[in-house]
What we know:
Elements: H1 5-13, E1 14-16, E2 24-27, E3 31-35, H2 36-48, E4 58-62, H3 73-88, E5 91-93, H4 100-107, E6 114-117, E7 131-134, H5 137-144, E8 149-152, E9 155-162, H6 171-182, E10 190-195, H7 204-213, E11 221-223, H8 228-236, E12 256-261, E13 268-270, E14 278-280, E15 291-294, H9 302-312, E16 322-325, H10 330-338, H11 341-348, E17 351-352, E18 372-375, E19 391-394, H12 397-406, E20 434-435, E21 465-472, H13 479-482, H14 486-489, H15 496-499, H16 511-518, E22 521-524, H17 537-544, E23 547-552, H18 557-565, E24 569-573, H19 578-581, E25 587-591, E26 598-602, E27 607-613, H20 617-625, H21 628-637
Parallel strand pairs: 3-4, 3-6, 4-5, 6-7, 9-10, 9-12, 10-11, 15-16, 15-18, 16-17, 18-19, 21-22, 22-23, 23-24
Antiparallel strand pairs: 1-2, 2-8, 5-20, 13-14, 21-25, 24-27, 25-26, 26-27
Helix pairs in contact: 2-3, 2-5, 6-7, 9-11, 9-12, 17-18
Amino acid sequence: xxxxxxxxxxxxxxxxxxxxxxxxxxxxxxxxxxxxxxxxxxxxxxxxxxxxxxxxxxxxxxxxxxxxxxxxxxxxxxxxxxxxxxxxxxxxxxxxxxxxxxxxxxxxxxxxxxxxxxxxxxxxxxxxxxxxxxxxxxxxxxxxxxxxxxxxxxxxxxxxxxxxxxxxxxxxxxxxxxxxxxxxxxxxxxxxxxxxxxxxxxxxxxxxxxxxxxxxxxxxxxxxxxxxxxxxxxxxxxxxxxxxxxxxxxxxxxxxxxxxxxxxxxxxxxxxxxxxxxxxxxxxxxxxxxxxxxxxxxxxxxxxxxxxxxxxxxxxxxxxxxxxxxxxxxxxxxxxxxxxxxxxxxxxxxxxxxxxxxxxxxxxxxxxxxxxxxxxxxxxxxxxxxxxxxxxxxxxxxxxxxxxxxxxxxxxxxxxxxxxxxxxxxxxxxxxxxxxxxxxxxxxxxxxxxxxxxxxxxxxxxxxxxxxxxxxxxxxxxxxxxxxxxxxxxxxxxxxxxxxxxxxxxxxxxxxxxxxxxxxxxxxxxxxxxxxxxxxxxxxxxxxxxxxxxxxxxxxxxxxxxxxxxxxxxxxxxxxxxxxxxxxxxxxxxxxxxxxxxxxxxxxxxxxxxxxxxxxxxxxxxxxxxxxxxxxxxxxxx
Length: 638
Ligand code: MIC
Ligand code: SF4
């Protein structure tokens, strides 16, 4: 048997099913990560499982999202997470230490291991040769309790990289090019595995930029082999002993193959308001910019900031630009300080922010009204920045820094000689902002602030499902549309009754009141419904408001799983044209039976439609039980 890298790791972790395309598999999870915005629910659910200690090799609880503390809620959540981590044996990463994905790559990622994270950008770990997957908090809680993670065996797509990147282009341009080619829905239930000579030209953080943003393709994950470059990176982190070589077998097969000639790439840019709205920078040159933001889990590594620093040396940020820089971790910040690189950024007028997600999730630094923000981030969904009418573009650090000097979108090739930045041979290691748990189980108190409320549950499914259409949406609805983030709403992440008041508010102000008045109902969605974040709030809040099913043309992977976990049936139009026949407020009756012949009767129109589903047998059982929480508790009680 010959295997590619993904198959090697999956087969070594397979505990259920067979590695056959799109069939159910269960894999053992070695490591988990959570962050504060999804972590409180994950740990509340874990606590309710009654397991005395996490059963993974390693579980890390990071604090990096909700760090703007305008009231007590966020800090209360941090204290809860710190206390619960200690009690149950997880490592706690204190606020200020850095962004979960950057830190995990630096300090904990191990080639060949599996990582499940309650954050959609967990595939960053693919840069170091791990199978790392984003999931809802409940799935991560189950993994911490020692349960396998269930998924459809993805189709493995080879992305063959040839040649070498020209000056002023970088890893970001590779993933933007992929997004341009295959779109935000092109990767659903796929793994993108990188091969070819071009792989040898990319350092681990550059590989991680690519696997990180593979999430925007809708992919299950993306992965690079573990090779000499991986070994060098791990050595620089003083973790060489954890390295092993993982390469695909010579005749390994792939479901499909894509090639990219790195030498022919040019600086790219994703225009508002989707990460796949990609064109060459030269096509949009000259557009006036008001903010440049450098950072996020996509582009905040040492190399990214060193490049920015070299370009800013002896320059001043354009007078019409606010340049904000968030280093990915304390280690990155310490290193650019030690190497004198921070000074260039500060001298030029860059505003240095905490080592957190910050502006990427709308935690501060909202652009001006009708402003234009160039960001090295991964998502530019409308309103995510905190300013509804702002235009957000996604770019590489090269393109970002060029705009910060010229004040307009500028092809960075105009900047002259490209400063080639080298990775340090040794990083400064200082793990003092991690709190490691004791080996023995301790009877410790978990500290809960007043905003932390229990996770609500749902009744068993009642067939048929009855109600009216309380919302009809278009294609590519994001979980930011369903449950916005940002500085005002994120502090409510631990309080479902409160946060549910904000459901869909960005696209329909009346949704909450209507859902409440009607006692719930149905949502009609277009293609790729629920793309983006892993936040289970986008499923729990609608469940809390009585949503019984979402009928869409297709679903994004993580949101599909979250809907099932919280007992909302994700149903698919058998005939896509029926989408046009159903209108807002139509009364529907859906007979689900055993989910094989689903009929939707439209009482208002006196019509019937066939519905399909993309559910595995296990999903059907979860839905019948009213969601995974009920299912798991029933199972554990038995
Ligand atoms: C995001 O980038 O949207 C987030 C915030 O990191 C989310 C997680 C969350 O909503 O808490 C993600 O990507 O999963
Ligand atoms: Fe944080 Fe942004 Fe990365 Fe999400 S995408 S983990 S908000 S930096």
